[in-house]
Amino acid sequence: MSRKYFGTDGIRGRVGEGPISADFMLRLGNAYGHALRASVKSAGDWRKPVVIIGKDTRISNYMFEAALEAGLVAAGVDVELMGPMPTPAVSHMTRSLRADGGIVISASHNPHHDNGIKFFSAEGEKLDDATELAIEAALEHPFRTVPSEQLGKAVRTRDAIGRYVEACKNSVSRQFDLQGMRIVVDCANGATYQVGPIVLRELGARVEAIGVEPNGLNINDGVGSTHPELLAARVRETGADLGIAFDGDGDRVLFVDGQGEIVDGDGLIYVLANDWKKSGRLRGPVVGTLMTNYGLEKAFGQSGIEFVRAKVGDRYVHQALVEGKGILGGEASGHLLCLDRTSTGDGIVSALQVLEVLGRTGRSLRQALEGLTMVPQKTINVRLANGARPTEADSVKAALAEAQAAVSGRGRAFLRPSGTEPVVRVTVEADDDVLMQNTLEKLADAVRSAA
Asked: Torsion angle, CA of 206/352/127/311, rounded to 10 degrees?
């Protein structure tokens, strides 16, 4: 069955449109609550389920938090409200408090006029397709309120920040500290604005924090991992050792080295994988996605590190890691998964893993990246007419085969229909910029002709 509301990462859209509206959130909370009650009862447990709700700093979250809370309480579910906290903090607290599920209200790296909903299982993992379909099926029922004596209650989670700070610090060894290190941290005016600087300071770093003045409208606005230029400039201006940028909900992280050069998720995975292989910590394959730079795959091949690709989206990286019994994977965007430390992508925990490698080896970030050469990569989005499926056209299949032959052994060429808008993403990467550009334009022209 196809999903009506859920995309690759929960439900997302523009505030006030379609499912991103208060009335839908009320129904969604109610449907989820009844689905949880049915699940708990089927296991022979008649207690009220408990759900954790966290959010980022968007102004619309006041509205959506209240709507979800009302829907859940009406379904007979107890609710714990965390307030503004990173997405991975909700995952952690769902497990730690032994709740039955977790909800995050966030559109991640998107601007304030977008919003979305992500769900976590009792294990703190993103829901599988079957569970999402069950929630969608429950949405087909009318809004239902349980008898008054069965209604749920809502309370504020006690010391959510303190609990999560300790969880982050416990992801690294007790001997690790950041004494003497100067770090600029950019919290994107988002969910990490409180906890991110606290963690780094409690580990001994001298921290300058930017993007820590959320007003409901400025999340990801020229700051954070989607706009690391400000952080890079600040690192150069202050002479800091490095910079760390999170996105609006705190599940992505990018670094900036001491020279102000941006290091994306592919570079950070390289640093971790090489060190973990030497120390014996690395298990199973390292998992990237279709968009992972060919240069990283080539570097891993040279160092004997097994590497596999999953579909785009951290949920698919997680799935491939579990299937391959791996612990490290992620995306260039900064979604990193360190599954021997946490059950989901966690920007703060991932940053600490990188900092621990640098501290233990005494190397700078630039030195830790030696041996990795990224190849030029570029994507063109080709907009589609209604109903057009150019990737199925023989002319496009022939053009793709020709493009792949042109960059064979030097890069990759591929097409990726978008799951959220009517476009096909045409991507080519190669170790020669001219070869990459020429191949890209020829392939994109073939797609346009069939679109």
From this structure: 110
Q: Are 317 and 288 in contact, with CB atoms under 8 Å apart?
A: yes
Side-chain half-sphere of 18: how many Cα atoms within 13 Å?
A: 10
**Rounded distance between C-alpha atoms, residue 335 and residue 301, angstroms:** 22
Strand partners, 25: none
Total residues found in the chain within this entry: 451
Between CA 210 and CA 246 the distance in angstroms is: 11
User: Backbone phi, then psi, for 20, in 5-degree steps?
Assistant: -90, 60
SS3 416: strand
Q: HSE of 86 in the Cβ direction (CA atoms, 13 Å)?
A: 30
Residue 405: how many CB atoms within 10 A of its CB? Answer: 10
Dist. CA 304–CA 444, nearest whole Å: 34
Cα(first)–Cα(last) distance of the chain, in Å?
A: 27
- Among residues 387, 377, 381, 378, the alpha carbon closest in space to that of 447 is found at 381
pLDDT tens string 117-158: 999 999 998 888 888 888 999 999 999 999 999 999 999 999
pLDDT digits 0-9 by tens, 287-297: 999 999 999 99
Q: What backbone torsions phi and psi does residue 279 show, to the nearest 5 degrees?
A: -85, -10
Catalytic residue positions, numbered: 108
**Beta strands of 238-297 (E only): which ranges?**
242-246, 253-256, 262-263, 286-289
Return the C-alpha torsion angle 321, 322, 324, 326, nearest 10. 50
Q: Radius of gyration (Cα) for the chain, nearest Å?
A: 22
| 312-370: pLDDT as tens digits | 888 899 999 999 999 999 999 999 999 999 989 999 999 999 999 999 999 999 999 99
Confidence of residue 420 (pLDDT cuts 50, 70, 90): low
Sheet holding 11-14, edge to edge: 11-14, 114-120, 101-105, 50-55, 78-84, 154-156
The answer to whether 183 and 257 are in contact (CB under 8 A) is: no
> Quick check: pTM over 0.90?
yes
Cross-sheet strand order for the sheet of 286-289: 307-310, 286-289, 328-330, 336-338
Cβ pair 249, 204 in contact under 8 A? no
